[in-house]
Amino acid sequence: MNNKYVVGIGEALWDVFPEGKKLGGAPANFAYHVLQFGLKGMAVSAVGCDKLGEEILGALQDKQLNLHIQQVGYPTGTVQVSLDDKGVPQYCITENVAWDNIDFTDDLAAIARDCSAVCFGSLAQRSAVSRGTIERFLDMMPSEGTYRIFDINLRQQFYTKEVIERSLRRCNVFKINDEELEIVSGMFDLDGDVESRCKVLMDRYGVDILILTCGTDGSYIFTSAGERSFLPTPKVEVADTVGAGDSFTAAFIAGLLQGKSIADAHRQAVDLSAYVCSCEGAMPSHDGFRK
């Protein structure tokens, strides 16, 4: 199992701040962190045939990631980040860009058949092309013994009830945060306490594991077998929180793939996420992290 691919599929982009740009995209963050646990992490996306695309490829190659990143006839994705008068960031995610146009190829089909886990979100499914590719990838994975993680990652207006529902039907691990749970509860007419709403989603869509993160208020893991794990969020000096959620998902799945229990994989996820928050950037080296 450990020599099979562990894939992050979806957006690859630059976050463009007034002071400069930073590499962004949850799939590459996820793939990078599973790689640091000795697994075969791979980022799957698309960039343009432009300077920004070449820079993304170079930056990810420097991280020694396995890559399946197509170069297509659309511009490389960017997110314009600006600050309002109160210093609150405002985001504008450029549309009709390269990662909206990930093609499903024979090579990608072969990766899907040799994949032990894949993490995908809602943002890269805003376009029909990439949504179709993600769904075909999921459908071609081995049906037994693999993890299909839907890390919902709601962004701006780029999600619909239909896309969320289609993703829930294809995943067996669902990750959501407390703010997203409120949005989804409204869309799907869920009521009751947090745990009961999570269990309704699991039962309704056949999800085996649900991960709920609540920022500084801790995190939960629920399983269809009735396991429940809660851990508080460690207190650390925060450098930034970019990529912390992606590292949490990666550490948890890496733990399961390497034979850890739910509780031990959860502890690993919480600890790595806190470590990433104490570092600058979404992809710090694990050299300072005790596994």
| Count of helical stretches | 9
* Major sheet: 9 strands, mixed
What would you give as the CATH superfamily? Ribokinase
Number of domains: 1
CATH architect. name: 3-Layer(aba) Sandwich
Helix-and-strand structural type: alpha/beta
The percentage helix is 25-40%
Strand order of the largest sheet: 5-4-1-8-9-10-11-12-13
Shape: globular
Could you explain how this protein is built, in words?
This protein has 291 residues and is of the alpha/beta class. It has one domain: 3-Layer(aba) Sandwich (UDP-N-acetylmuramoyl-L-alanine:D-glutamate ligase). It has helices spanning 26-36, 51-62, 106-113, 128-140, 161-170, 178-187, 194-205, 244-257, 262-277; strands at 5-9, 13-17, 20-24, 40-48, 66-72, 77-83, 89-93, 115-120, 147-151, 173-177, 209-213, 219-223, 228-231. The strands form two sheets. The chain has a nine-stranded mixed beta sheet with strand order 5-4-1-8-9-10-11-12-13, with helices on both faces. The longest helix is centred in the C-terminal third of the chain and has 16 residues, at 262-277. The model has no long low-confidence stretch (mean pLDDT 93).
List keywords for this structure.
291 residues, alpha/beta, 4-stranded mixed sheet
Furnish the topology, listing elements before pairings.
Blueprint: E1 5-9, E2 13-17, E3 20-24, H1 26-36, E4 40-48, H2 51-62, E5 66-72, E6 77-83, E7 89-93, H3 106-113, E8 115-120, H4 128-140, E9 147-151, H5 161-170, E10 173-177, H6 178-187, H7 194-205, E11 209-213, E12 219-223, E13 228-231, H8 244-257, H9 262-277
Parallel strand pairs: 1-4, 1-8, 2-6, 4-5, 8-9, 9-10, 10-11
Antiparallel strand pairs: 2-3, 6-7, 11-12, 12-13
Helix pairs in contact: 1-8, 3-4, 8-9
